[in-house]
Structures are given as C-alpha cells and as structure tokens.
C-alpha cells in the first residue's frame, strides 16, 4: 500500500513537471494540431496514427509538429525531406518512450538495460548494426549461398501444401518457412515444419506489438505499465519474449560447449565459424576494449538483444509481405497468369534460382508493386540526437521524427493512380524492369533495413516456386477478396482463404 502511495505521488509530480514543460513548445517549431498536456494529440486522433498523419499533412503541410503523448514529434511526408533527414547521423535516434516500453518488454529481469540494434542509438547501435550487417552478408545475405537455405524451406512447404490443396490458410505455412530459414541462419539449427515452439513465440511477440500499435498508450506512456491491470497485462505479454530468451540462452550455451569441444579436439584451433552466434561469440572473446558494446556481460546482453531484433524484425515482416503478394495475385488472376507465363518461359519445370530474377522483369515489377501498394511499414519512427533544423524549422534534441512512408509511396503528385495495383509502373517502354527511387519499403538512409537482401531473396524464391507449382484461386471468387490492410504497428495482411490447383 505504502509503495502505491509513493508511486501515486511520484506520478502526480511527474505529470505536473511534464505539464509545465508542455507549454514550452520551442520557438520556431513546425505548425500542427492542438494537444493536451501529457496525452498530446491522442484524444483527438480519431482513429489510427496512419490516417491522422495523412489528415495533418493536408492541413499543415509536409512538415507537421505536434505532441504524441508528451514527446515533441515531427511528421515528415515529403520524399526529399525524408531522404535528407534520414541520411543525416543526427536523425538516427529512436523515440525514448517507445524504446523504454520495448526494452522493458524484451528484458529478462526488471531494470535490464537495453541493447541490440532496433532500439539502441549512438555508438552501441552503430557497432551492433555494422557487425550484424557484415556477419549476415558473410553468410550470404547478398550471395547465392542463401539460396540453398531458403529453397530447402520452400520445398518443405510445397510438400505441406500438396498434402492439403483444398481451401486453406497460407498464413501458418508461410510463417513457418520464413521463421525456419532465419532460425537456421542465426543458430545453425533446422526446425521441423511441425515444430510449434518458435512459432508460438513469434506469434506472442507480434500480438503484443500489433495490439499496442504505434500510437498505443503504452508506446507513448511507458510508465502506464506500473499501474494495476495494465501491469498484469504487460507481465502476461512478456511470456513470449521470456520464452525466446530461454531458448536463445540454450542455443548460446550449446554453441559455447561445441566451441570448447572443438578446441580440445583440434589442438586449440577452431574450425570456420558456422552461424551468427558462432561469429558473435568469437567477437566477444577477442574484444579487450571495456567501452566496446561487445565487451564481457555487455557483449552477452547485446548478443541476446541482437538475436531477438534480427529474428523479430525479420520473421513477421517477411511472411506478411509474402501473404500480401499472394493476396494480390488471387485478387487479380490476370496478373497471376502473366507471372506464370513468364516463369514457364524462363524457368519451365526447373528449380528456380536467384539468377532468374533478372530475366523475369514482369515478376520483378509485380513484387515491387506489392511492396509499394501494401506499404507494410507505413511510418518509421526515429529521433534527433542533437538540435537540428528541417525546412527552416528548429527541432531540439530528442524530437521524435516520423517518416510518413505511406505518403511517399502513395503520393498522387508522383504516382499515377497510386491506389490502383499496376505492376507496369515498374516497367519501361521495352518492358524491362525499372527501379523507382521512391519505392522505399525498407526505408533509406543510415538506419535502412539490414534484412533487405534476404527479404527480397525470400520473396522471389517463395513467390515464384509456389506459382510454378500451383494456381491460386479465391474460394468465394476474386471480387470478394479485400486487399485493405489492417493497421497495427505495421500493416497486416487481411485474412483470406485460398484454393490451390496443382500445375505440375
Ligand atoms: C519485406 C520484409 C521487410 C520489410 C518491408 C522491412 C522494413 C524495414 C523498415 C522500414 C525498417 C526501419 C528502418 C529505419 O528505422 O529507418 C527496418 C528495420 C530493420 N529491419 Fe527490416 N524489413 C523486412 C525484413 C527484414 C528481415 C528479413 C530482417 C532480418 C534479417 C530485418 C531486420 C531489420 C532490422 C534489424 C532493422 C533495424 C535497423 C536499425 O535500427 O538500424 N528486416 N526494416
């Protein structure tokens, strides 16, 4: 009881101080909608953050200033402005409130510090990101070696689909394929298609993030997690990340055991590293600089958090994008037929290879239109790490800066009929694939997605192989299929059923 009284008086003080600070909106801050202390614009948002961003843009322009919760926030909607800002190191922070909630969510015990890639900043972020990019690249993110890992999962999936060609949900099958290939890259281990342990963890984590959404109360006001009821709910949602941590601990311990066994058997010489955990453990061992994010216990925590980040960021996004891809070709059967004609010409009955992509411009165009139209990540939150200026406005350090990706990829001044799904916009006059710098599903700049190459490889190999083996039909007819995304933390693909008709 005494603790709750102290907590309550602490909260009242906190609110009062926040309230005072609130009226100190910096001079020369961008214009935007009115806010109330502590909650900011939340009470007036009328729906989700995505729709609100588009309304604010219409009313206040390409640079909008507001309070989300109690954080000073700016929404950028113009491509050039986003591009300039996000290539600048001073925009590579993450929002403090979001980081606090997500750090507490993933922590294995109260008070555990943050780390890893997605929710860190400064030197720690830059070291961890650089290491992850290089290590994943060495394993073949950008090389053909990755093809084997992905294709193995694709073929397992085809077998599962063949066994049940009747009307079914693709969701589960695709998720398993994507989860398994990433698990192999990170841990060196293969999961069987029926293994539900990792899938349950992935689903549990996604549920929390999507239910909260980007502007959910907990994401804006992390202290809410100490209040009764919310506290219990928050604790319950931590079950998935805690199970993940246990599994990761087990994996790391196994790797350490194997490494020391190898040293004993090979006169102190290690064989070549095999997976992400192996390389990371080597890095921890060789790090002598106490300030480094790879040193000692800090290094071990960063290993755990980086594994969680890569796995968390890579699994649901990869499978959601695939789900969207199949949804569009079910909705538009003529486009599906054109892809199948192209793949019959180029691949026939052979096994697809990443090299085929350059000979399949139409398929490439369809996949880019899937990424543009679905706009999986509709807004990306960063924060300023110093005082900066944007379009003549002043933004203090720690201002949250959202890139309104939905606007970039659906801007009517740039894209013709952006609401229409039209792959031809990515083809030139000679029907060759034409990249567009404004199709940025993985963002751009200093923090762009580190899994871009892997995601593109997965998308191509899964998509082409499934369309090679099956024709996909909507059991209730294509007209009835909705392509309207569900707005959560990111866009989720609407649920749909599919009938598979064998082609070979
Ligand atoms: C179609 C699938 C994917 C899409 C659309 C996507 C999109 C994005 C976007 C928009 C960001 C935010 C960038 C920023 O903050 O500026 C991001 C970050 C990130 N993504 Fe992906 N991603 C996908 C797949 C993957 C995969 C497969 C992995 C892992 C192998 C991955 C790992 C990450 C990580 C670790 C970050 C954080 C980067 C940082 O904070 O520096 N993503 N992704």
TrEMBL record:
<dbReference type="GO" id="GO:0008395">
    <property type="term" value="F:steroid hydroxylase activity"/>
</dbReference>
<dbReference type="GO" id="GO:0006082">
    <property type="term" value="P:organic acid metabolic process"/>
</dbReference>
<dbReference type="GO" id="GO:0005506">
    <property type="term" value="F:iron ion binding"/>
</dbReference>
<keyword id="KW-0472">Membrane</keyword>
<keyword id="KW-0256">Endoplasmic reticulum</keyword>
<keyword id="KW-0560">Oxidoreductase</keyword>
<dbReference type="GO" id="GO:0020037">
    <property type="term" value="F:heme binding"/>
</dbReference>
<keyword id="KW-0492">Microsome</keyword>
<keyword id="KW-0349">Heme</keyword>
<feature type="binding site" description="axial binding residue">
    <location>
        <position position="449"/>
    </location>
    <ligand>
        <name>heme</name>
    </ligand>
</feature>
<dbReference type="Pfam" id="PF00067">
    <property type="entry name" value="p450"/>
</dbReference>
<dbReference type="InterPro" id="IPR001128">
    <property type="entry name" value="Cyt_P450"/>
</dbReference>
<keyword id="KW-0503">Monooxygenase</keyword>
<protein>
    <submittedName>
        <fullName>Cytochrome P450 CYP3033A1</fullName>
    </submittedName>
</protein>
<keyword id="KW-0408">Iron</keyword>
<dbReference type="InterPro" id="IPR002401">
    <property type="entry name" value="Cyt_P450_E_grp-I"/>
</dbReference>
<dbReference type="GO" id="GO:0005789">
    <property type="term" value="C:endoplasmic reticulum membrane"/>
</dbReference>
<dbReference type="InterPro" id="IPR036396">
    <property type="entry name" value="Cyt_P450_sf"/>
</dbReference>
<keyword id="KW-0479">Metal-binding</keyword>
<dbReference type="InterPro" id="IPR050182">
    <property type="entry name" value="Cytochrome_P450_fam2"/>
</dbReference>
<dbReference type="GO" id="GO:0006805">
    <property type="term" value="P:xenobiotic metabolic process"/>
</dbReference>
<comment type="function">
    <text>May be involved in the metabolism of insect hormones and in the breakdown of synthetic insecticides.</text>
</comment>
<comment type="similarity">
    <text>Belongs to the cytochrome P450 family.</text>
</comment>
<dbReference type="GO" id="GO:0016712">
    <property type="term" value="F:oxidoreductase activity, acting on paired donors, with incorporation or reduction of molecular oxygen, reduced flavin or flavoprotein as one donor, and incorporation of one atom of oxygen"/>
</dbReference>
């Amino acid at each position: 009881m005494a603790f709750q009284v102290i907590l309550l008086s602490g909260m009242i003080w906190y609110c009062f101080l926040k309230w005072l600070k609130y009226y100190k909106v910096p001079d020369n801050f961008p214009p935007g909608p009115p806010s109330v202390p502590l909650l900011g614009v939340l009470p007036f948002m009328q729906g989700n953050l995505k729709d609100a961003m588009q309304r604010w843009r219409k009313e206040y322009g390409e640079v909008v200033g507001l309070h989300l919760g109690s954080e000073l926030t700016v929404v950028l909607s113009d491509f050039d402005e986003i591009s300039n800002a996000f290539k600048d190191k001073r925009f590579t922070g993450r929002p403090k409130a979001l980081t606090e909630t997500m750090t507490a969510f993933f922590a294995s015990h109260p008070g555990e510090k943050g780390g890893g890639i997605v929710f860190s900043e400064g030197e720690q972020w830059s070291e961890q990101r650089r290491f992850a990019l290089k290590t994943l690249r060495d394993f073949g993110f950008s090389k053909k070696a990755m093809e084997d890992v992905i294709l193995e999962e694709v073929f397992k999936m085809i077998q599962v689909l063949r066994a049940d060609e009747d009307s079914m949900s693709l969701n589960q099958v695709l998720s398993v394929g994507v989860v398994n290939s990433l698990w192999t890259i990170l841990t060196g281990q293969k999961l069987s298609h029926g293994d539900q342990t990792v899938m349950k963890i992935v689903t549990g984590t996604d549920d929390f993030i999507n239910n909260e959404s980007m502007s959910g109360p907990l994401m804006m006001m992390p202290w809410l997690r100490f209040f009764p009821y919310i506290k219990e709910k928050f604790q319950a949602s931590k079950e998935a990340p805690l199970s993940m941590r246990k599994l990761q601990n087990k994996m790391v311990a196994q790797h350490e055991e194997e490494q020391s066994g190898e040293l004993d058997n090979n006169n102190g010489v290690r064989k070549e590293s095999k997976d992400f955990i192996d390389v990371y453990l080597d890095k921890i061992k060789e790090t002598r600089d106490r300030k480094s994010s790879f040193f000692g216990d800090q290094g071990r925590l960063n290993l755990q958090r980086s594994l969680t980040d890569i796995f968390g960021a890579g699994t649901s996004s990869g499978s959601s994008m695939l789900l969207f891809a199949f949804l569009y070709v079910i909705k538009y059967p003529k486009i599906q037929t054109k892809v199948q004609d192209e793949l019959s010409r180029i691949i026939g009955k052979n096994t697809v290879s990443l090299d085929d992509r350059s000979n399949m411009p139409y398929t490439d165009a369809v996949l880019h239109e899937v990424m543009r139209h679905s706009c999986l990540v509709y807004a990306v939150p960063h924060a300023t790490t110093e005082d900066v200026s944007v379009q003549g406005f002043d933004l203090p350090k720690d201002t949250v800066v959202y890139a309104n990706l939905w606007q970039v990829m659906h801007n009517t001044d740039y894209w013709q009929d952006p609401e229409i799904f039209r792959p031809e916009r990515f083809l030139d006059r000679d029907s060759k694939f034409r990249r567009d710098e404004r199709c940025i599903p993985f963002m751009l700049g200093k923090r762009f997605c580190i899994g871009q190459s892997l995601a593109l490889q997965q998308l191509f190999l899964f998509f082409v192989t499934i369309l090679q083996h099956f024709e996909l039909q909507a059991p209730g007819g294509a007209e009835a299929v909705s392509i309207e995304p569900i707005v959560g933390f990111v866009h989720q693909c609407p649920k749909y059923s599919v009938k598979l008709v064998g082609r070979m």
